[in-house]
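Troubleshooting entry. The earlier prediction with magnesium ion gave an output that would not parse, so I re-checked the input for stray whitespace and re-submitted. Clean input:
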Amino acid sequence: MSDHHMKKSVSINNDIFEFYLSEKKIQTKIRQMARQINKEYRGKAPVFIGVLNGSFVFMADLLRYITVDCEVDFLKLSSYGHTKISSGKIRLLEDLNCDLKGRDIIVVEDIVDSGLSADFIIRLVRAHKPRSVKVASLLLKEAALKSNVKIDYIGFRIPHIFVIGYGLDYAQKARNLRDIYQLK
Ligand code: IMP
Ligand code: MG
């Protein structure tokens, strides 16, 4: 049976979302990503920088598969407001609290759509003069391929759909869902 038929849909604010990606598939993918990071950062001590709010679930799971010395910090951006369409305006709501000079940085994103947020964060991080900056995103929408940002670790490439769950919200709801759902 395909993933698609295993679970029911959910309703949020009168919109119907259909099951899209299982918790199991997500975890398998994250383990693979962590294995690659552990290999590539052997002997290093990367700083993982999560982008709030969406990346907190992914960060928590990814970090627990990381075996190299590492640190974690978060920054908070606002771009989506309360809708399903990006405003395109990015505001920094909360800045970083750690010294990134000479460090190896891995930016952790839940999803990259237009790539505007990722581009904004990369510039912000680079201003701290780190040794290296890479980006890990659980999901990558095809629109991102048209932007200039390079996503180094990609969980799943998805089409232009709106997804929720596993940290991703719709008007701040649905972040608690263990699986990922797509807007019908
Ligand atoms: P970008 O700047 O267009 O790449 O958008 C990135 C941010 O928009 C992500 O970090 C998410 O917070 C949000 N976002 C983009 N697509 C979705 C989606 O399908 N569901 C929920 N949030 C999304
Ligand atoms: Mg986000």
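This one parsed fine. The chain is about 20% helix and 30% strand.
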